[in-house]
Amino acid sequence: MEGQAGKILRINLSDGGIAKEEISEEMRAKFLGGRGFAAKILWDEVRGVEPLSEENKIIFSTGPLTGLPLPSSGKMVIASKSPLTGGYGDGNIGTMAALHLRRAGYDVLIVEGKSEAPCYIAIHDEEVRIIDAGDLWGRTTFESQDKLEAEHGRNIGVLTIGPAGENMVRFANVISQRGRAGGRPGMGAVMGSKNLKAVVVKGTGKIPAFDEQRLREMGKAAYEEIKGKENYDFWIRQGTLMVFEWCNENSCLPTYNFREGAFRFSKRLDGYALEKLKVDRKGCPLCNMQCGNIIKDVEGENTELDYENVGMLGPNLGMDDLAKVGVLNRMADEYGLDTISLGSCLGFLMEASEKGLIDARIKWGDLEGCKKAIENLVKKRGLGEIIFEGVRKASERVGGESRGWAMHVKGLEISAYNCHACPGMALSFGTSPIGAHHKDAWVISWEVSTDRFSYSKEKVEKVVELQRLRGGLFESMTTCRLPWIEVDFGIHWYPKFLQAATGKEMSQEEIFDLGDRIYALIRSYWVRENRGWTREMDYPPLRWFEEPLNQGDLKGQRLDRAQYDEMLSRYYGIRGWDENGIPLKQALDGLGLGDVVGVLGEHG
Amino acid sequence: MAEFRFLGYLAEIYGKKRVEISLERPGKLRDILGVEFPEGRSIVLINGRVGNFNGVIRDGDKVVIMPVISGG
């Protein structure tokens, strides 16, 4: 396949070994790239290991569309066995490193082993070096980016961790270009466990494509189509923060640790508040609908906001000032912390404090208290000792009733959508392949536009459809889904892009099969790596079932356990999984995953 | 009075985020507003229930018109 001529670059930090490996045609045909490759490599190579041990591996994986002159294609997937969840973990990130990696001739970078001392990896086309990072260790992600650019020039791609990753905070992520973030299930902690501070990539070659001219022509037309979309101008002004007003209106805004779905100070935080404070915007490579909106925070520093971080660090903490939220967001980016998990952990602490379950006092809306907690989190002391492994572990430490309002699924904190009155979205969080995250299937709008409170068959089918496209296709091509989902850029373009990039036609059935195959493999990975797996792992937290909303138009709403269970069983039925959500032999065989059957033993 | 609210870019299509209109007799939503919305990309809630632009609006009704969105 001419569009995917890149190799796997494998670097072992224990012995300094460097290998360049071909990617088989079968691998490309079955898993496409990005998340698909990452899942396959983890399944084959990372079994029964501790996530923060030398035996774990971290995978930086691009897809056949990555870096080509197509809308929002500057993306890569970072994956590993997650130290936050103990299962499959990944996240995508927009970064020049994705383009440079492919220009250097690699589709995938696998880092394994552990360096004795802090190091970083420098890849310049064929040349690969492991370099001492003693003078980078302890520095923020912004400082690291600056120092690495000073050393290697500005025309590079950088993936770096901050002090949070170095100290293995379990929801430490990876940062690029001073604010692009990815890998929320602790991919930064995995890098830290390997003493790997950063990856620097410079590629000078050309990214291969089957039909370069057609690709360029289509790319030009596609960028134009996006700019002509009806809500494009509004998007450019507000970006994902346009969602804030909508979620508040529909009672799905995360508020006071997901107790409520609407926030009385929402107008101080929404897209219109952003417009008043906005000083600039930023985005990923090759994107013409940049989503990073920059404001000055209350300390006078630039901070890059989007909906998720405002939702989780704003109403979820009772914080009523966008410029205050900006401070917490900037600290997270500098230290290399996932903002969603951070917001959930801080909200958990506030509720525990309010209920007298911890000695320390941290009140809703307390900016200084939050700042201090973040400093302590990064150093794993004080309140940081309670939350550095996420809310699941925090609730085990705090005890009492707190398990019911530790807002996670499978150990990954829920992203910024309250589901007291969104059964379909609750299912989406419940079955997301990395733990509770919204990227695979965001179904709330569809729920609101149809039969919001139902647990219908159609709703389950919609979740599966979105997972196939958002979680399967987009994560594996690997390109950003936002042009399609945010401004209604035609999804019919993508099979054409793939054909021009790889020379291979993909039918809708093949695209759905790809998504189903990746989902079945990732689910099998979770089952294999978690002894005693049950369907309970696919349940959202008790709060949504047991504590109704107290405020707003939907006061009294909560999820129904029995109906959620029915919906979950229906979901398993569509996927060919058993009543515990374990893939059955017939489904695995049908997806060409016969080798998985034996490993899953009696379940397979 | 019937109350009409518009979210996101649909407020810019209408020109206001909120309007109250006195209705002497019930009428179709599209006729009352007199503005063309992207109907395939819009959600209409009438008194909290899903409706559409052909829905009949009466005095006292509360209508919210919001764009179809897709989260992040």
Question: What would you say this structure looks like, in words?
Answer:
The complex is a heterodimer of chains A (604) and B (72). Chain A has 604 residues and is α+β, with helices and mostly antiparallel strands. Chain A has 26 helices and 17 strands. In chain A, the strands form five sheets. A six-stranded mixed sheet of chain A has the order 2-1-6-3-4-5, sandwiched between helices. A four-stranded mixed sheet of chain A has the order 8-7-12-9, with helices on both faces. Chain A has a three-stranded antiparallel sheet with strand order 13-14-15. The longest helix of chain A has 22 residues, at 508-529. Helix content of chain B is 15%, strand content 38%. In chain B, strands 2-1-7-4-5 form a five-stranded mixed sheet. A two-stranded antiparallel sheet of chain B has the order 3-6. In chain B, strand 4 (42-46) and strand 5 form a beta hairpin. The radius of gyration of chain B is 12 Å and the shape is globular. In chain B, 29% of the residues are buried. At the A-B interface, helix 9, helix 18 and helix 20 of A face strand 7 of B.
